[in-house]
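Protocol step 6 of 9: fold each sequence in the batch and record its structure tokens directly after the sequence line. For illustration, a two-sequence batch is reproduced in full.

Sequence one:
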Amino acid sequence: MPAQPAPGLACLEIVFSDRPWQAVSVDELPFLIGRGRENGNHLPIDDLRISRRCAALCAAPGGIRIEDRGQLNGIYVNGAPTKETTLRDGDKIRLGMDDGCQLVFRLRPEAGSGQGATPDLRALLGSLEGDSADELKRLRLVLDAASLLQSRLPLESVLATILDHAIAITAADRAMFLEPDSSGTLQVRVAREGGGLDLEPETMNPSRTALRQAVEQRCTVVNEDLNLADLNLKTAQSVLIQLLRSAVVIPLYGKPREDSPSGAARTDPLLGAIYLDSRRTSAFSALDREILDALGAQAASVLESALMVQREREKQRMEQELDIARKIQQALVPQGLKDFPHLAVTGLHRPCSEVGGDYFDVFPLPDGRNAILIADVSGKGLGAALLTTMLQGTLSGMTLGVDPVKVFNHLNLFLCEHAEVGRYATMFFGLLDSAGTLEFVRAGHPSPLLLRRGKVSELYSGGSFPVGLAEEATFKSSRYQLEPEDTLLLFTDGVTEAQDKSANLFGMERLIDTFRRYPDSSLHAIQAGILAAVESFSAGAKQSDDITLLVVRYRQPADIGQAPV
């Protein structure tokens, strides 16, 4: 069956679990897929899991279908085995049972069927004199380029292919895409030469004078003979060194911002520029300029679309990374705290975003005491979560019998010496023995509340430094004697600073009053009651801080298990 031309109709994204992503254009049908180019495959896949004659894309009524041509263990489309099926945009194709290789089918809009650049480019057909096969071929390349620009390929691939088409159309020596940096200066991002070869962007030295002219005039600039151009351009260093004779610069501007201040002049943002140059004089014909003008008039809006796709993919990648960080952090936070011989505990951690900066823990020490810890790292998000994880690793050293005061002083100096971290943490760390003696170290954290015989008080008053805030800060331990059935409430400021829709704070007084209502209740009832009070107060208002609670009740060892928890 003879090959049928189908330029720009589709592409295949090739995704390996252990190799870089790539995309291949489907330029003719049937389009053969298999192992080895020597077997006539248009898409040769160098992998022993792929059969030599694997599959083929073929023309079908209303689209393109895939056919199984002998792949070991068959082919699967969207997880379902198939011998042949018509493909839709975004269909996922698995070759065999192994998940190592996956193809994603992308259907491109046909040249002339969409909106944007195509109608303007097709109108250029009327400007051709006679039946020029060469010019028609060049125009087809531009139509293919316009179709490609509407695809969902990665931006780098779109830009590289557009530059290749521009070189083929104009016979330029080089083509570049430049984008503005933070200062607004155009810098080369992608550079190509004939034959589809990449050039190192860092080594490119385009004519800055030609670029400046195009940006200032806000239109395409064509210099037919740089030696005859204005004196500034003629003496430009980059032109002399590279012996350039002709250059074209097409500035690309985006749509005006809709959020411009009222009455302010709306300006089109500069997205970048397409730059072509040649060592030949008069290298760019009149038709080239018309085609490039038509292409440039639409390329800016298409570039905005490509940038949007790129931002969406980056957002998805970040969401995946945050999800991984969230799962790691949740795994580190204690789940289902168990009671110990002389204390009962319960706690919860509710982050306000994907990952938070709060942390709590309760764990036994070799000397029979139990450690009680709550911490709140400044800031939110991934940075706070990373420091929280580091704190947990550091404080785990307490199980080796290390003096808590020495650990706090060391941790403070470490964070201060690494100021680039830009984070500090408030912490409360206590050690409770079977006799009810609580030895604790505080570092800028709110005092735990003590519920004793229906009355609520603070364990301590006065301020202290967080760890990592001041290098001169030192920490010391204090002691407090608990009585049987004393209940401690440890919390982070996300509780007292919870806001309602009018930005009023829940506050310490409400927390004390709520805690006081549960003198003889189980720890779970206390925790649930405080959380319900905070939620009722906030009435669905979005919170800006994590909410963490840790409730601890001291009991003499003989009393454990006699009261509900």
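Sequence two, same batch, same settings:
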Amino acid sequence: MSRLERAGAALLIAAAALPFWAGRFLPLLDLPQHLGLAAVIARAGDASSSLSRYYQVDVGITPYWAYYGTMWLLTRALPVELANRVVLSLYAIGIPLASAYLLASFGRDRRWAVLTLPLVFGTHLFFGFATFLVSIPLFLVALGLAERHLADDRTRARHEIPLAVASALVFLGHAQTYLLLGACVLVLLAVHGRGLRFVVVRCAPFLPSLALFAVWAWRNFVAPERAMQPLHTVHYTTYGRPGALGAVFEPFPVVLRTIPERLFGAFGDGSDLALGAVAGLLAAVAIASSYGPAAVPRRDGDAGPVRAWVLAHRCDLLVLALAASYLFLPMEIAGMWYLNARHLVFAALALPLLLAAPATGVRRALIAAAAAVTLAVCANVVREVRAFQRQVGEFAVIARALPPGGRVLGLPFDLGVGGPVRLWPFLHFACYEQVLAGGDAGFSFAGLPSIPVRYRPGMQAPHPYEWRPDQLDWATMGGAYDAFLVSGSPRGRGGAELTRHAEPVVGAGPFTLWKPRRPPP
């Protein structure tokens, strides 16, 4: 790469991180939940924190520790919200850098990694899947290391040790991503394999991560303590036996029709979808102009024609495997939603592997166009984040009135879908009670199978289904809470119950904080 290209790459990488610093409150659906649990872990063992009264940290083997462990380290020096911005910035920076490494591992021009930058801001980001986000660049690095390890004519410690570490980190990032990595490694093993001894020897770096996965899978699937209950009741720590997972598949036309919005479909004005279409068109032009087989490893130079063809087209096989993982896997199991759709981003990130020609000559125009689209995407996300700050209003006023160490129930009558982001960004805002006031939120991810935080026995309060604030029943739920964070206007039975027994004490933007009426002395 020339000096100008390096400067351009640095500019694009900085632009990818900028949106996470464009406003305090990020419109990422599940993010407040993860921030709240990160606050619990950050204050674990602190007897002065009320969080220790409600929750306990499970230090056993479970996915998601890549995110929560990184947050724990950063919160030794930074506040939780700032630490999270650092993690999300590392995710944004990691996507293009890891993609460049993956391309180089297959002998491709790493400059084609510019095509992956718009995917940093895909729909999966605005769902707020923080732990899943961390696993994406780790997956790309691990897949690149797997190719280098399996394509080499002999085993080398410089491949084996990093591959063992990267594979373990992928599992600790997200179990779903780890299983997808396993599927890709199986494809590469089939392509590079030279008999049983080769497979046994070359699989050695995966043994540590497989051991971690086996311990977790035994606890959650083979010998579960108790199966997980519906999310709006009591949480248990395991998924249940495989036969009871209740897989839900979408109709195939829906799977195909929703591909664009599952890649870029978070903004209410459709601007991300339009820019995503331009990015997709550039990728299609690049593939049309630069598609070709990958270089065959030198040790296989004497392979037969069939084997040589398979080796030359191993990138195609990987892209097909990743696409199939989206097309044919379920949308939901055991209450865990949006499963196959998460795989779509990996298939999109793998597309540059199909580009055999270097990004030189007239193809530089494609690189320049992709860079321009990336800058437009980043600027658009900054605009939407700033618009979300206006939609949220002066939430800091609400934050100052949150009960210190208390318990707050979120009642999202307004989910925020009329603003810049359509993916229900107000749903989990009550979790800022955990982050800012050290208390408990009425609905928390604590206790879900892959979450390393549990409620202490008897400390989970009853609550309505988070999507149905109208189901609030004061007689069985109201007395457990010190305050209620309401977005929008109370309505339905739940709204009537709230107005009968509580009163608003402070409001800002679409939010009001209500506290129970106390009987006169």
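Proceed to step 7 once all outputs are recorded. Observation for sequence two: The first strand starts at residue 55 and ends at 57.
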